[in-house]
Specification:
The protein is mainly alpha-helical. It has three domains: 92 residues, no CATH class; 53 residues; 31 residues. Helices cover 79% and strands 0% of the residues. It contains seven helices and no strands. Helix 1 packs across helix 2, helix 3 packs across helix 4 and helix 5 packs across helix 6. The protein is rod-shaped, with a radius of gyration of 52 Å. The termini are far apart. The relative contact order is 0.04. This is Coiled-coil domain-containing protein 43.
Length: 221
């Protein structure tokens, strides 16, 4: 008889007391117990009746009734334990799945935040006012070269379209600003004083003209 079944130790003890050979009749009981379908009691009653007819002794009714109740109770406890293990297994699988999904979500969110942060830093760094002098110098240098090459290609191909890449556009804008700054006249302190003096003179002249015009109207009255 196998030692793997949950009823083995009990049957080894109880069957001989009921006048039955354990090796011969234990498989009948374990076969019934292994049936996980719902039992209304009739199958167990039929089994008990079969065992009782096979017994070598005329046992008391109470002994067989107690045997019946014990088999039924142990079977119910075992099936309840099996169901509980199944439920726990399902819960563990669900918890593991949820944990893995949560990790994937957190990782995706972290990656998205890092990508967005890098983009923001890049946008800030790409602004002319935040560029280093060396970077601006390089962009201006290559901007001039690209402009010369583009002008030559445009002359040869008849194509005068604007630069297509962000790099070319940035270089062109920086070049344009630099050229405007270079071409703008530099105002000295003396020039500023002369301009201020001229503005005051113009203002006084306009004021004097308005005064004379007002006096003329008064005389005409």
């Amino acid at each position: 008889m196998s030692d793997d079944h949950y009823l083995d130790s009990y049957l080894t003890e109880i069957l001989p007391a009921l006048g039955l050979d354990a090796e011969t009749y234990a498989p009948y009981v374990t076969g019934y117990a292994n049936n996980n379908s719902d039992d209304d009691g009739e199958s167990l009653d039929e089994l008990i009746e079969l065992l009782r007819e096979s017994s070598e002794i005329d046992g008391e009714d109470d002994a067989w009734e107690n045997f019946r109740k014990e088999i039924s109770l142990r079977r119910q406890d075992y099936l309840a334990e099996v169901d509980l293990r199944k439920e726990l297994s399902v819960l563990e699988i669900q918890a593991a799945t949820h944990a893995n999904l949560q990790k994937e979500i957190e990782l995706s969110q972290k990656n998205a935040l890092e990508i967005d942060a890098r983009k923001q830093v890049q946008l800030v760094n790409d602004k002319p006012e935040n560029m280093s002098a060396e970077k601006i110098a390089l962009i201006r240098k290559f901007g001039y070269e690209d402009s010369d090459d583009d002008a030559q290609r445009g002359h040869d191909d008849g194509d005068t379209e604007a630069p297509n890449t962000n790099h070319d556009q940035a270089a062109a804008l920086l070049l344009q600003k630099a050229q405007k700054l270079k071409s703008a006249p530099k105002q000295t302190k003396n020039d500023a004083r002369q301009e201020t003096k001229k503005m005051k003179a113009d203002k006084n002249a306009k004021k004097e003209a308005r005064r004379k015009k007002a006096e003329k109207r008064e005389r005409q009255r």
